[in-house]
Write a structure and sequence with these properties.
Radius of gyration: 21 Å
CATH topology of the largest domain: FAD/NAD(P)-binding domain
Number of domains: 2
Order of helices and strands: EHEEHEHEEEEEHEHEHEEEEEEEEHEEEH
Largest sheet: 5 strands, parallel
Structural class: alpha/beta
CATH class of the largest domain: Alpha Beta
CATH architecture of the largest domain: 3-Layer(bba) Sandwich
Distance between the termini: 57 Å
Strand order of the largest sheet: 5-2-1-9-18
Helix content: 25-40%
Number of helices: 8
Bound molecules: flavin-adenine dinucleotide
CATH superfamily of the largest domain: FAD/NAD(P)-binding domain
Shape: globular
Length: 369
């Protein structure tokens, strides 16, 4: 009989869902598995702008992890990792516990670092659970009249337009793009459509970087002050700090460096996927699409390791479809250098997102009206 082995699934992110599903299909009898997650659910960020815009209920945007863990015979531990010792093969948790592992699968996503702005209490988008709760309260009590979104990437762009749709024209909505401009990681055709979409919907596009963020204003590098009663910090994310000092090989960006097999380059019993992982051989943009796509190989290799099978490589797609919602039920599709926009693109995105949720047991009832 095979010796008992401990599998720890750290974070219930997009890729880990595939590991849970694979365990539900074929759970090796000699494996004891634990899923560590601060919340018993995963918020699907792709539908978050649609939730803010009012197209989806909260329930439609979250995946319940408890039923997936139960079906997989995995114990759910509601806690967060605060430290890792790769030599001792242990994970320290914020509830005081320490978990040992034979195989570890990390999919905790990234964090944001508001201290970069020198201001405590700047509300961040991550943890997404906290942002969702805070925004829900805000909408119920006193919807904002002056929103400033800081960060001109896809998330900031979609959220600025979602706020505009939600609040109507009586509110002011602005986006501070950062030094590299709006949708800087996208080709020119997408950027053009993006600038036009903001202008047509009355969202002020402030080209330039923010220098200071207070609770009621954003100051840009040119000294201008933008008053706000709601600030969305949609600037970039960073790797979680608890990886520092773990002994795992880390990239310059702090991410856990993996091989194409999604194994740590320094510790082959550790696997990682999603935004917490970094590839040096093939740097990938941090994106939910890549996290989802890596899931099948993560599952195959984690289970393979427990069964003594050789890992298989993951080839990230060279090009991915990006769909940017525009507040109302319209969206931009970006594929390589090509970009198109329309209501049919939103319906396409809606079908893809609901299909993903349905595969993980979240009902795909009608959109909110
Ligand atoms: C508003 C918005 C819209 C977006 N839209 C898109 C889009 O349309 N397409 C796209 O590709 N990308 C999109 N993104 C980016 C996308 O959210 C991330 O790239 C994606 O979430 C990364 O997936 P992940 O599985 O690595 O991490 P996550 O989705 O963040 O999942 C990580 C999980 O780990 C848990 N966790 C966190 N810390 C710990 C810890 N210490 N211990 C244990 N568990 C922990 C978290 O609670 C979470 O459940 C969007 C982001 C935002 C903010």
């Amino acid at each position: 009989m095979a010796e008992r082995q401990w599998l720890v699934l750290l974070g219930g992110g997009h890729a880990q869902l595939a590991v849970l599903q694979a365990l539900a299909r074929q759970r090796p009898a000699h494996v004891e598995a634990v899923l560590v997650t601060p919340a018993p659910r995963l918020v699907y960020s792709g539908m978050l702008p649609g939730w803010l815009a009012g197209h989806y209920t909260e329930a439609q945007c979250v995946i319940a992890l408890a039923p997936l863990a139960a079906a997989a015979g995995v114990t759910l531990r509601q806690a967060a990792a605060i430290g890792l010792d790769a030599a001792a093969r242990t994970v320290q948790l914020d509830d005081g516990g320490v978990l040992g592992y034979d195989v570890l699968s990390v999919n905790t996503g990234p964090v944001q670092d508001p201290s970069a702005w020198g201001t405590a209490g700047v509300p961040t988008l991550r943890p997404i659970e906290d942002w969702l709760a805070r925004t829900t309260r805000r909408l119920a009590v006193a919807p904002p009249r002056q929103v400033v979104v800081v960060g001109g990437g896809a998330a900031g762009f979609e959220l600025a337009l979602a706020w505009r749709h939600r609040l109507g024209v009586a509110a002011e909505v602005a986006i501070v793009t950062g030094g590299t401009g709006l949708l800087a990681n996208y080709p020119a055709a997408v950027r053009r459509l993006g600038v036009r979409a903001l202008a047509e919907r009355g969202v002020r596009c402030i080209e330039g970087a923010a220098r200071e963020i207070a609770s009621d204003a954003v100051v840009t590098v040119d000294g201008r002050i933008w008053a706000a009663d709601e600030i969305v910090l949609a600037t970039g994310t960073v790797a979680p700090r608890w990886l520092q000092g773990s002994g795992l090989a880390l990239a310059p960006d702090g991410g856990l460096v993996t091989l194409p097999t999604l194994q740590s380059v320094s510790h082959p019993e550790v696997f990682a996927a999603g935004d917490v992982a970094s590839r040096l051989d093939q740097p990938l943009p941090k994106s939910g699409v890549h996290a989802v796509r890596a899931g099948a190989v993560l599952a195959a290799n984690v289970l393979g390791r427990l069964a003594g099978r050789a890992p298989v490589p993951w080839a990230a797609p060279g090009r991915t479809l990006n769909l940017l919602s525009l507040g109302e039920r319209s969206a931009i599709a970006a594929w390589g250098p090509l970009a198109v926009q329309g209501r049919w693109v939103w319906r396409w995105k809606d079908r893809i997102d609901r299909g993903f949720m349905a595969r993980h047991g979240t009902g795909s009832g009608p959109a909110a009206t």
